[in-house]
Amino acid sequence: MLRVADHYAGTDTGRQRRANEDSLLARSPLFVVADGMGGAQAGEVASQIAVDSFRRGLDDASQPESALATLALEANSRIHELSHSNAEQAGMGTTLTAVYVGDQEVAIAHVGDSRAYCLRDGELLRLTDDHSLVDELMRQGRLTPEEAVEHPQRSVITRALGPEGTVEVDTRTFRARAGDVYLLCSDGLTTMLAEEQIADVLRTYPRLRDAGEALIAAANEAGGRDNITVVLLRLEEVSAGSLQPADGDGPHEHATMLGVPAVAPPVARRQPRRPHTTATRGPAAARRRKRLRRAGALAGVLVVLGVIGSGAYLFLQSVYFIGTNNRGLVTLYQGVPFQLPGNLSLYSSRYVSGVGASTLTTQRRQTLLDHSLRSEANAAGLLRSLELGQLE
Q: Model pTM?
C-alpha cells in the first residue's frame, strides 16, 4: 500500500499583487489548492471557504471521487449563498484542485485553472484540464499553445466555485506508484513557468522543500504577476504484511521458540538432585541468573527509552512556532526551534506565507517571530490574520 512520505506547502503574494487570494490545505492524505477571484476581500474569502470545506476530511474514503465532489459542491453552495447575501462579496469565486491519496490510487477533484501534476520517472504528467477560455479554444483547435501564452483573455476562466448555484466538478482516479511526486499549484506558477521548466526544477531538487522554494522563487523571477501557491507530496510503499508473522508461525509459537535456550528443559529440573553435581552446577546456575538479571535490566531500560522517545515524538508533532525561512518569509514550523549536532533539526516547515519579515514593524516581529510554542490552530490563525492584514 502507498502513503505520503513527505510533503511541502508554500504560498507567495508575488511581485505584482498587494494581497494573497490563494488558500491551501496540506493535511495528509488530503491536499487542496484554491485560487480566489473577485477582489482582495472577496477572493480571499471564497478560497478560504473552499479549503475549509475539506478540513473535516472525506466522509466516505472508500469512494474518494464521489466524496471529493460532494465537498466541492458544498463549498460552491456556501460561496454562492454568501456572495448573494453580502454586497462586498458579490460575484466572488474560486478555483479548486483537491487530491486524496488512497492505498493504491490518487483521486482528484478539479474546477478552474489551478492544476495537478505527477512527476514519474523524470516525466511531468498533467492530471487536470484548465477550465479557461484559452484552453477551451485550444481543445477546439482554434488556438495554438504559442498563441495561448500571449492571448489577451488568457486569465478568463469558464468554470469556478461560487458564481453559479451549481457547478460541474471534474473527477478522476490516477493509478499511483511509490516514488511519485505530485504537484498542486495555482496559475501564478504555471503562467510564469513552462511545464518543462517546472519539471527541470523538480528533477534538480529531490528534497521537496527545496523544490517548492525554488519553484516559487523562479515564478517571482519570471515576473510574479499573480499569487503563487505550491503543494508537493511524495509517495512511498509500505508493506501491509511486513509486520505479520509467516504462515504457520504465529506470535505465540515464535515467542516459544525464542525462549527455549533461555531456560533449562523441564525434564532436567524434575530429575533428583545428586550430591556430587551440586558444587559444579551451582556456579553455572548463578551465572545464568546473573545474565538473566542483566538482560531484564537492559529490557527495562529499552522500554523506558521507548516510552520517552514516543512521548518526545508526540510532543514534537503537537507543537508549532512561527519564524522565517531562508527567503525571509514568515513561516509556520512544526516541532521545536532547536537543532541537534549533525545539522539535525527538531522542526520542519509546514506552511510558507506570502509575507516578508522585513515588511513587519519591529514590535510585530518581536511578538510574532519569537519562536513561542503554539497550538496548530493558534499559529495558523495568526498567519492567516497576518496575510489578510487583520493583526492588531
A: 0.65
